[in-house]
Amino acid sequence: MNLRIRLYILLSLSILLLSWEGQQLMTVKADDQFIPEESIRLRILANSNAPLDQKLKRDIRNSVNEQITTWVEELHDVEVARNVINENIHILYGIVANELEKVGSNEAFNVSLQETSFPTKLYGNRLYPAGDYEAVVITLGDGNGDNWWCVLFPPLCFLDFSNGDAVAHETESPQEDQSNEEDEVEVSFFIVEVFTNIMDRFRA
Fold it and tell me: What domain of life is recorded for the organism (predicted)?
């Protein structure tokens, strides 16, 4: 076997190994976060799938999540969180109305805290079965567009459960940024270590 073929094989094995290890790391990290039994979700149904309606949905999501997080981030009891949200539901109405006004829309909307149906969702290695769960439900216009959902209590809205993907928290703290940098450094060192080991074996 000539040197070129050996290098091709070595490179292919390295890529396969690094891809597998990277997938394992991502799966473990995603599985660190999960929805507890006692939780309150947020579900927003857009008027339609038109780009402007979907953008409006995201803007309302950001504003509502930011507000509710300030109410519940220090709470540990779902009953207390439920009472706080119920007592301040009028503020959420105001937030939605304000976002609609920004884009010059006068479409109807509704905000409520209720049990509503959710589909089965796989996130990381965890399967969340379909069922009725408590949620703040915001319906915009006809509510015929794609919906978005996350978990308000405990605060997990930096995870996009509707897509089954982890998304960046828009209000990450410096500590979280530092943690992400440390994770990247650890992965980089891991990649270097794996490649070095493969090269050592090849030379041997």
Answer: Bacteria
